[in-house]
């Protein structure tokens, strides 16, 4: 009897242990399944996020490309409209500059056509096609716009050069001034709203001039000039005047600080124009 009871107890324990083991296996299986489901969900979410990001990136790129295309088309339309509105005489001047750049004229040919030799210099270093632009500006404020040719890369003050300026007289383009490497013109708008043409010129290390003009039709009328002439007076080489004859014998001697103040007051107001390219 005791033996039978002991046997029954052993069997019951075995069954219990087996049941416990089976329960643990089921729990472990359930946990594993849950982990797998979580991983699958995470992978699905990552995939969705990745696809969404790709779609958003692609959309942004498409929008950016569309915006660039629209900007290019707008600029093209603006240029065509500007060219169509140009007087024929001005279009002829632009045509000469286009030929000079594309055909790589020599300096002598530019001089023969009364075009700025600085453009030839730009062509020599390969930048003319990207650097030369045109702009319409009323220099003498008479309601009629003059044609300006100049340097498009004009962030630096020294680069805000006006290569060439023309006005219309009886339908023909008449040149007002022309820049060369040592004789450069700049557009100035002072605080009072006056439009002034600044001319920086040099005859060598001992003789330079800063001359300031207003435009009157086809003429430049001088309003102020600063001359450096060490040949006239090496110790006191600075002079100021209201003429542009470069003869300092009757000009006023001034100190360098005064001169620098005057020059800087103009230079700081050199105008940065929004040029249209002569060549696309």
Q: What does the model show?
A:
- The chain is of the alpha+beta class and 280 residues long.
- It is 46% helix and 26% strand.
- Strands 1, 2, 3, 4, 5, 6, 7, 8, 9, 10 and 11 form an eleven-stranded antiparallel beta sheet that branches.
- The chain is globular, with a radius of gyration of 40 Å.
- Residues 1-30 have low confidence and may be disordered.
The low-confidence runs, each spanning 5 or more residues with pLDDT under 50, are 1-30
Number of helices: 6
| Global morphology | globular
- Proportion of helical residues: 40-55%
Give the SSE order as H and E letters: HHHHHEEEEEEEEEEHE
Please report which band the strand proportion falls in: under 5%, 5-15%, 15-25%, 25-35%, 35-45% or over 45%.
Answer: 25-35%
Taking all Cα atoms into account, the compactness measure Rg is 40 Å
Give the integer mean of the pLDDT values: 82
By secondary-structure content and strand pairing, the structural class works out as alpha+beta
What are the main properties of this structure?
single chain, 280 residues, alpha+beta, 11-stranded antiparallel sheet, 11 strands, 26% strand, globular
Spell out the blueprint of helices and strands.
Elements lengths: L1 H84 L2 H15 L4 H6 L4 H8 L3 H4 E6 L8 E6 L9 E9 L2 E7 L4 E7 L5 E10 L2 E10 L2 E11 L8 E4 L10 E2 L2 H12 L8 E2 L3
Antiparallel strand pairs: 1-2, 1-11, 2-3, 3-4, 3-5, 5-6, 6-7, 7-8, 8-9, 9-10
Please sum up the structure shown.
With 280 residues, this protein is α+β, with helices and mostly antiparallel strands. 46% of the residues lie in helices and 26% in strands.
């Amino acid at each position: 009897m005791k033996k039978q009871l002991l046997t029954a107890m052993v069997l019951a324990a075995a069954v219990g242990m087996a049941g416990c083991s089976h329960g643990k296996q089921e729990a472990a299986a359930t946990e594993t399944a849950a982990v797998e489901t979580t991983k699958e969900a995470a992978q699905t979410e990552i995939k969705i996020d990745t696809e969404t990001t790709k779609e958003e990136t692609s959309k942004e790129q498409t929008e950016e490309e569309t915006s660039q295309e629209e900007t290019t088309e707008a600029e093209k339309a603006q240029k065509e409209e500007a060219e169509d509105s140009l007087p024929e005489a001005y279009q002829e001047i632009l045509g000469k500059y286009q030929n000079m750049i594309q055909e790589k004229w020599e300096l002598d040919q530019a001089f023969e056509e009364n075009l700025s030799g600085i453009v030839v210099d730009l062509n020599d270093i390969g930048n003319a096609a990207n650097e030369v632009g045109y702009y319409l500006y009323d220099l003498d404020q008479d309601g009629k716009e003059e044609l300006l040719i100049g340097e498009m890369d004009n962030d630096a003050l020294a680069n805000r050069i006006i290569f060439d300026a023309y006005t219309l007289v009886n339908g023909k383009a008449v040149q007002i001034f022309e820049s060369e490497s040592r004789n450069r013109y700049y557009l100035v708008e002072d605080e009072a709203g006056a439009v002034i043409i600044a001319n920086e010129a040099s005859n060598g290390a001992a003789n330079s001039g800063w001359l300031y003009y207003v435009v009157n039709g086809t003429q430049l009328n001088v309003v102020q000039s600063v001359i450096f002439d060490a040949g006239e007076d090496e110790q006191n080489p600075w002079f100021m005047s209201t003429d542009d004859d470069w003869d300092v014998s009757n000009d006023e001697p001034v100190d360098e600080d005064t001169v620098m103040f005057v020059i800087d007051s103009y230079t700081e107001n050199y105008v940065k124009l929004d040029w249209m390219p002569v060549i696309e």
